[in-house]
Amino acid sequence: KINEAKKRLYQNLIDLRKINFTHQQFAETTIVYIDLYQHNMKSAMYYALKSVKRMEAEKDYTFGDIFYMRLGDVYNFTGHSEEALELYKKSIEIGQTLDSGTWYKSFYGAVAALSIKGKNKEAIAYINSLTSKYPPKTTFDKMSVAYIKANCYEALKDNVRAEKFFNETDYYAKQLNTPETFREIVHQYTMMSLFYININKVQKAKFYTDKIFTLFKVNKGTYNSEAFQRLLYKTDSINGNYKGSLEHFKNYKRISDSIIG
After folding, report:
1. Number of C-alpha atoms within 13 angstroms, CB side, residue 27?
2. Is residue 68 within 8 Å of residue 88, measured between CB atoms?
3. CA atoms of 106 and 128, how far apart (whole Å)
4. What average pLDDT does the chain have?
5. Distance between CA 103 and CA 117 in Å, rounded?
6. Terminal C-alpha separation, the chain
7. 3-class SS letters over 200-245
8. CA-to-CA distance for 122 and 85, rounded, in angstroms?
9. Which of 25, 70, 118, 261 could join 54 in a cystine, given CB atoms 3.0 to 4.6 angstroms apart?
10. 84, 115 contact by CB (below 8 A)
């Protein structure tokens, strides 16, 4: 169904060009969203740049926070955290001006970009500063703020605080049960499982890994990512399933290489 959606978006762009309709950035940014999901980084970069250039040329910033955020996501995924951070800041600025309510997603991206650069103390200060002025209102945002704090503390090797905020993440995650939040919660549980493997709390890691598979059943959904394949190969290795571990490691490398490429 995703590939069918992409085909329709490509056809939509063709039709728009035929009638010289210039506002093609809405279709382009949607393609970027799908490409990021499928790890098609070259295509994602191409359409993200096109959508932003088109928006800036037309000076139509109505959804500017989304366009800048998408391009920031592409840069972040491909390891260009400095460029990503500047784009997230633009997105936040526009989103706060428009009071769009979506700029919090760019805030998460900005924190991630700082963390990737190794500036985790700065990232935590940024989180505390911004959330004191603009506290998270929804359960989803409260969960996400706890999660990004946990990530920063994990990177700083402050496992006590990391675990505290991972527990807070789980507290809010248990209150969410919608198709819209499924992927994000699975991703966060994946990272929590990896955290517990890294600090040799294997049973706690299993607890959150089991939660992931329960969510698969309840939501009748699937999920795949570099981190998830990393979790699977490490879990299989711990359990002595070395053949399965090797297969998941190959999958992990394939996804990792596609992102870098």
Report:
1. 17
2. yes
3. 16
4. 91
5. 21
6. 25
7. CCHHHHHHHHHHHHHHHHHHCCCCCCHHHHHHHHHHHHHCCCHHHH
8. 13
9. 25
10. no
For residue 144 the two structure tokens come to 């996400």
Looking from the CA of 80 toward its CB, the CA atoms found within 13 Å total 15
| Residue 153 confidence (pLDDT) above 80 | yes
- What's the pTM value of the predicted model, to 2 decimals? 0.81
Please say whether the beta carbons of 194 and 234 come within 8 A: yes
> How many alpha carbons lie under 13 Å from residue 96 in its C-beta half-sphere?
12
Task: Decide if 140 contacts 176 (C-beta within 8 A).
Answer: yes
What count of Cα atoms within 13 Å lies in the side-chain half-sphere of residue 176?
A: 22
Q: State yes or no: pLDDT of 37 exceeds 60.
A: yes
Give the tokens for residue 100: 């769009």
DSSP character for 101?
S
pLDDT at 100: 66
Alpha carbon distance 148, 218 (integer Å) = 26
